[in-house]
Amino acid sequence: MEDFVIRTENLTKVYGHLFWKKKEASLEKLNLQIPRGSVFGFLGPNGAGKTTTIRLLMDLIKPSEGQAWVLGQPADNVKVKQRIGYLPDGPSFSTYLKAYEFLNICAKLLKIPSSERKKRIYEVLDIVKMTEHANSKLGGFSRGMIQRIGIAQSILNKPELLILDEPLVGLDPHGRQELKDIINEQKKAGTNVFFCSHILSDVEKICDHVGILSRGKMLCCGALTDLLSETGYRLVIKAGHDDIMQKFMPEASSSSKLSDGGWELVFKENVEVKKSIDELKREKPDAITYHPSKENLEDFFFRQIASTDKRI
Q1: Same domain, residue pair 136 and 189
Q2: Do 172 and 238 fall into the same domain?
């Protein structure tokens, strides 16, 4: 079995303009290796080439150059589609169909046996919290409800790989949290997840690997823990040790009191502060805990994009 659920070599897509004979590369020599067992966040500004990449992986368009493999098979292998769940950006379904009718059609296309079909449809409706709308027409659904039905159809076949293009669009905060829970549950069930999103705070919470694309080129790719830089230290002081808090508070860049009466102090990179914390840890090991503080994904993302813009 191949170690990567998705792999590309020099994957390129060039769009030509008929009248001006001008060619533009939407995607340029993309080399990507996504390991099995991961939730991969594919990030980038509008027009970066994310949707083009997904369409190439799904064989909805053909590459100008390069190759792509999905689940160990060439992207144009028809049989491998049975093992993939896919939600396109801005899904649109027949407004005259009821939710159950639409999912039933999808289940037939996925060749889910008739004896299992009804049960599986109601399982996915329950997962996306849409059971009560099973017999309602899609034409009366809000954008968020349509997105939930789109997610339901993408997991109907219990896919080995789930590809989602902007799945969080149209969902309210509660719906976003439910989708994050769904993705986490899919991962626990052994499903590999590849998705695009502009909501970086959510990506940071659910992804273990990310890639950032800009102007058709990959800027960076890897495990999230490896990409985010350490920016300082986070010190947690247990309740009853206000003397420690008072000692370190003047050097902290931020502080917050915890619900249990303790304190959390955040420090920027500082050799002297780290030395003092190390000494305190040896003297009073039960009074504090501390660990490196890392930049968040949003800061990292904009730093990567800004560095690219400066080079162009």
Answers
A1: yes
A2: no
